[in-house]
């Protein structure tokens, strides 16, 4: 169960890094204008995948916890 929780939190942290959630407004503005439209789209797709994987890992950890 600890592996599932750790994997879920790591996936959510990677999602935050790819989406720019841990940056200031000035950094977000700079990153927006520095990246091309295709780069932003590909980061969004990968971030959404990691988010869904993180939710799945945390849901699996919750189910394991309920059955133990």
UniProtKB/TrEMBL annotation:
Transmembrane segments: 47-67
Keywords in alphabetical order: Membrane, Transmembrane, Transmembrane helix
Protein name: Uncharacterized protein
The species this protein was found in: Paenibacillus solani
